[in-house]
Amino acid sequence: MYSLIVAVVSLALMFGAALLASRLRKVLPDHHLSEAAKDVVTRGTGFVVTLAALVLSLLIASGKNSYDEVSTKLRLLATEFILVDRGLENYGPETAEIRALLKRAMTAAMHKIWPDGEAPVPASSAESARSLIEKIQSMTRELKPVTDAQRILQTDALRELTEMKRTGWMLVELSEVRLPATFLVILVLWLVIVFFGFGLFAPPNRTVGLALLFCAFCAAGAVFLILEMYAPVSGVLAISPRTFEISLEQLGH
């Protein structure tokens, strides 16, 4: 919702700047609209257009990298839950309680990442995925392996649990990455200046107005896309929880 609001406000500001410049043109003295003045404004607008285009392209690339990294980490986390569950299953029936706790931990993690989603297994509001994984890790350490195979499975499970915690912390850090508000304000200001320059010397007719509206819509769309990719688990472009749902259905089976 935040991304859409910012995009709509950006669209209104850019197109409004073009309309304001078009109206201002009618009251400006002729020497303000001379060829020399037009040349200076055109060159200045072109410079700002280059800056804005460069920054937009860099932000889109950065946002896409962040989005892809979160998606990869989420798939990795789901895989780690499955690997721990399968290792504990192979260990023996004495790990049944740990495996049940593991399923609750994954459910809690899913509710934390996608609070509006519906997990196949209800999660207790008093439980957090982090505390449950700590408990699982402690219970796994307390297992008493009697064969070499069980010792290997216990070691593998503890290693995967450590990796799970590391992946979880990395996801927390990635989820905190946001586009600074000051950066966004400056970018939108540049775009407003660009459209003001366009409108100042543009012929006042409907075709030009529609063209400016379309260009403003595209620029606002780029702003919307950037903000959406910096919020990978919410909004229109949110990463689907389907991988977690499939993995959760496999736990305990």
The end-to-end span amounts to 39 Å
* Count of individual domains: 1
* Individual helix count: 8
Quickly give the structural class. mainly alpha
Number of separate strands: 0
Assembly form of the protein: single chain
Q: Spell out the helices and strands N to C.
A: HHHHHHHH
Overall mean confidence score, pLDDT = 85
Fraction in beta strands? under 5%
Can you give the helix content as a percent range?
Answer: over 70%
Major sheet: size, sense and barrel closure? none
Poorly predicted runs: 121-126
Question: Any idea what the shape is?
Answer: rod-shaped
Question: Radius of gyration from the CA trace?
Answer: 27 Å
Describe this structure in words.
The protein is rod-shaped and about 95 Å long. With 253 residues, it is mainly alpha-helical. The relative contact order is 0.20. It is built from eight helices and no strands. The model is unreliable at 121-126 (pLDDT under 50). The protein has helices spanning 2-27, 35-91, 96-113, 129-141, 148-175, 181-201, 206-229, 242-250. The protein starts with a helix and ends with a helix.
